[in-house]
Write a structure and sequence with these properties.
about 70 residues; alpha+beta; Structural Genomics Hypothetical 15.5 Kd Protein In mrcA-pckA Intergenic Region, Chain A; two-stranded antiparallel sheet; about 35% strand; globular
Length: about 70
Amino acid sequence: MEKYQFELSGDYIELIKLLKLLSIAESGAQAKLMVESGEVIRNGDLENRKRAKIIKGDKIEIFDLEIEIV
């Protein structure tokens, strides 16, 4: 599993925006589909909220990627 760190500049980022920003999803629609399909794990639990507020300390897993929010 590849591990990345994402430096958060504000208080939070919405999950679908994070997926687009990191180029994991090519579009907002594709990011929404990834979340709805159950492909996103947040802190060990399935995350099905497209606009979930991702904060520092969260770990996101999708496909073979692990993203730590710092």
